[in-house]
Design goal:
Layout: E1 6-15, E2 21-30, E3 41-42, E4 46-48, E5 53-57, E6 67-73, E7 79-82, E8 86-90, E9 95-105, E10 110-120, E11 134-136, E12 140-144, E13 154-161, E14 166-168, E15 171-175, E16 180-190, E17 195-205, E18 210-214, E19 226-232, E20 240-249, E21 255-262, E22 271-277, E23 285-293
Parallel strand pairs: 4-10, 11-17
Antiparallel strand pairs: 1-2, 3-5, 5-8, 6-7, 6-9, 9-10, 12-15, 13-14, 13-16, 16-17, 18-19, 19-22, 20-21, 20-23
């Protein structure tokens, strides 16, 4: 019968020895109680965690009529219902995964089969460090490895500094006490104990200094506008952003000229320059310089 879920009449004609025909009619119900036969194949038996895709193919499944639905449970807590017998899946969970396929035909008959795949993790993490290229002795800097990547999850960050200090954590801070190029090693470990390391270098420089070269301390000026010479050490690698000066009365302590900018350019070698302060009235004055950072 080609039509299911319907009543059908069957007529049988008998002929006796005299050639006379006799007819018998019987009504039967036509139904589909045959479950489909599921067959599932994977294009590979194992795949890499998070990056390897497995294709599952159930196109060899059969039914006496037609298959309407494929219900996939991938064993990692995820599932999918399709009308297509072929699906692709990428796993984010390690270990042996049991894939369960339930197929359902046009009248609701269903059947189930399973297959197993193995998900492995042999991929090393990729450590990436964000840090300043240079700093000043005694300054605290932050080193951040949050940009590191892995096909799974990085579970440990180990930092080794050239001064022998060790620290752990995705982001750490450090104060260098020695000038020069300082090497930093970061070792990352993922959930499967795969490891990888990277190294960076931070240039540590001395704190920049400014000194008055003239007039000498306690000297006398016969002009109201006083020329002041100063020297500035190298500012490379520091956060120095400006140079300022201030004039105060030595006797009263009153500020005569509050902090004013002096010429400033980041320099790799010591430089000398001059400013003119005044006009000043008769008296004793203290001239001060300061280096201002980027903040």
């Amino acid at each position: 019968f080609e039509q299911r879920d319907a009543a059908a009449s069957v007529t049988i004609v008998f002929q006796d020895i005299r050639g006379q025909n006799k007819t018998m009619t019987k009504t039967v119900d036509v139904g589909d109680a045959i479950a489909p036969t599921p067959v599932v194949m994977a294009n590979r038996s194992s795949a890499e965690l998070g990056i390897g895709t497995i294709q599952f193919n159930a196109s060899r499944s059969t039914d006496n009529d037609r298959i309407d639905q494929y219900n996939w449970s991938f064993g990692d807590g995820t599932s999918r219902i399709t009308t297509d017998p072929v699906v692709n899946h990428t796993y984010n969970t390690r270990g042996s995964q049991t894939v369960t396929l339930t197929i359902t035909d046009a009248v609701g008959n269903s059947n189930t089969t399973t297959t197993t795949v193995d998900i492995v993790d042999t991929t090393k993490p990729q450590p990436r460090v964000t840090a300043p290229e240079s700093t000043v002795v005694g300054n605290r800097i932050t080193l951040n490895a949050s940009g590191s990547i892995d096909n799974g999850r990085i579970t440990n960050f180990e930092w080794l500094f050239e001064d022998g200090t060790t620290k752990s954590g995705e982001a750490v801070t450090h104060i260098f006490q020695t000038t020069g190029s300082q090497r930093i090693t970061l070792k990352t470990t993922d959930q499967s104990d795969n490891t990888n390391t990277t190294q960076i270098s931070v240039t540590v420089v001395s704190t920049p200094e400014v000194n008055i070269t003239e007039p000498r301390d306690g000297s006398y000026s016969n002009t109201k506008n006083v020329s002041v010479g100063y020297s500035l050490s190298s500012t490379t690698g520091s956060e120095a952003a400006a140079l300022q000066y201030q004039v105060t009365s030595s006797r009263s302590g009153n500020i005569v000229t509050d902090w004013q900018p002096a010429d400033f350019t980041n320099t790799t070698t010591p430089v000398t320059d001059r400013i003119t302060v005044g006009p000043l009235t008769d008296g004793n004055y203290t001239i001060s310089f300061r280096i201002v950072d980027q903040e």
